[in-house]
């Protein structure tokens, strides 16, 4: 059958209707992302980092500030970026709405739409920390930054979040027993109420590595590394957990439900395993780091939820892109990177480094969309085609 040009026009117009982007704000495409920390003096330039990310086909990236050299390097790449408002800016942004507006104008609006800034993280691991002044400023800063995005008509483009450490929880074992700490609730509940109103997720930095290190005699390392093990059983929910990360996430869901926010999604904004550490950090080895990160990739590729929230597809940002040799603290803090400063892989978990980046522009192939894009895309294509075929027979 010969297809007329008029028919083709109608067909593509119909497809365009189905593929019109949703106005809902979602700062994460697919299931896998990475943290691009830069507390180091030996990592590649932002331009080379872009090449590396595209070679590795990692689309979702978080940074901890809004460095303009990074934002410029990401322009036109298709990579999706969450920028950070550092903790040092929280008090000013909380008390000065005009400063919040200026910050968003200079660090977000000025780079859109070429740089795909999908979110703003307001501080990092503020609640549960030792600085009460930051805890007091967090909600005000989040509100003022959100109001700035709204006044600039960016609130349907950029998602507002903040990441929490597990220090906000009073108890996380078994998962169903988890609640927020008493000294955190006064700040957490109003923050959750605001995030619930604007549709933001609960962002959790979850580290089985740290949990295992805190109690290696009681915790099976295989449970922490997604390896075969007996797991744990939660009597209250009648749920079984075969890995610690799922349990940590469901602990967060339990705390949210206890606080009255049962429908809020949990996204993992940091997780990883150190490949080297101090003498007392015996679990920080290349072998364990490779095992954790390889199995984490497989876990995320399943595109499934946790035992407590099976319909909420798990999404996570791995920590981190590079080892950061200028970070303070124990040696493990400087050795979470998946890649070396020269762009090669630190250990093989299936990524390509800079040395094998011949197809760096192909990260939006069909195969990658299947892994990182929306699963609804295939349904939409089939639906559109079905409608076209029906119209031919009418």
UniProtKB/TrEMBL annotation:
Swiss-Prot/TrEMBL GO biological process terms: carbohydrate metabolic process
Signal peptide stretch: 1-24
Nuclease recorded as keyword: no
Catalytic activity: Hydrolysis of (1->3)-beta-D-glucosidic linkages in (1->3)-beta-D-glucans
Keyword Translocase found: no
Coiled coil feature spans: none
Single GO molecular function: glucan endo-1,3-beta-D-glucosidase activity
Keywords of the record: Glycosidase, Hydrolase, Signal
EC number: 3.2.1.39
Enzyme class: hydrolase
PANTHER family reported for this sequence: GLUCAN ENDO-1,3-BETA-GLUCOSIDASE BG1-RELATED-RELATED (PTHR32227)
Family of this protein: Belongs to the glycosyl hydrolase 17 family.
Protein name: glucan endo-1,3-beta-D-glucosidase
């Amino acid at each position: 059958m010969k297809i007329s040009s008029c028919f083709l026009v109608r067909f593509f117009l119909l497809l365009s209707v189905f593929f019109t982007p949703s106005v809902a704000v979602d700062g994460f495409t697919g299931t896998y992302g990475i943290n691009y920390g830069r507390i180091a003096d030996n990592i590649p330039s932002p331009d080379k980092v872009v090449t590396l990310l595209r070679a590795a086909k990692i689309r979702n990236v978080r940074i901890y500030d809004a460095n303009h050299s990074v934002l410029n390097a990401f322009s036109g790449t298709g990579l999706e970026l969450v920028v950070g408002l550092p903790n040092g800016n929280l008090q000013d942004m909380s008390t000065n709405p005009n400063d919040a507006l200026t910050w968003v104008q200079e660090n977000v609006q000025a780079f859109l739409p070429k740089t795909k800034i999908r979110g703003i993280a307001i501080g990092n691991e503020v609640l549960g920390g030792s600085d009460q002044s930051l805890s007091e400023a967090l909600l005000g800063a989040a509100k003022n930054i959100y109001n700035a995005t709204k006044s600039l008509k960016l609130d349907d483009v950029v998602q507002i979040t903040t990441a929490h450490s597990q220090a906000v929880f009073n108890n996380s074992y078994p998962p169903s027993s988890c609640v927020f700490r008493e000294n955190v609730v006064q700040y957490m509940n109003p923050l959750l109420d605001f995030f619930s109103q604007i549709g933001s997720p609960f962002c959790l930095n979850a580290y089985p590595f740290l949990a295992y290190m805190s109690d290696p005699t009681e915790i099976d390392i295989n449970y922490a590394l997604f390896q075969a093990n007996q797991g744990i059983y939660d009597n209250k929910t009648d749920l079984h957990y075969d890995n610690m990360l799922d349990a940590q996430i469901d602990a967060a869901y339990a705390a949210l439900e206890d606080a009255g926010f049962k429908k809020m999604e949990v996204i993992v904004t940091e997780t990883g395993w150190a490949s080297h550490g101090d003498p007392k950090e015996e679990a920080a080895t290349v072998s364990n780091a490779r095992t954790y990160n390889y199995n984490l990739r497989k876990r995320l590729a399943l595109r499934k939820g946790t035992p407590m929230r099976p319909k909420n597809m798990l999404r996570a940002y791995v920590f981190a892109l590079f080892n950061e040799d200028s970070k303070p603290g124990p040696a493990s803090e400087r050795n979470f990177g998946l890649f070396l400063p020269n762009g090669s892989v630190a250990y093989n978990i299936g990524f390509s480094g800079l040395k094998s980046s011949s197809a760096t522009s192909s990260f939006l192939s069909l195969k990658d969309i299947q892994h990182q894009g929306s699963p609804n895309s295939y349904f939409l294509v089939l639906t559109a085609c079905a409608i076209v075929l029906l119209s031919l027979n009418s």
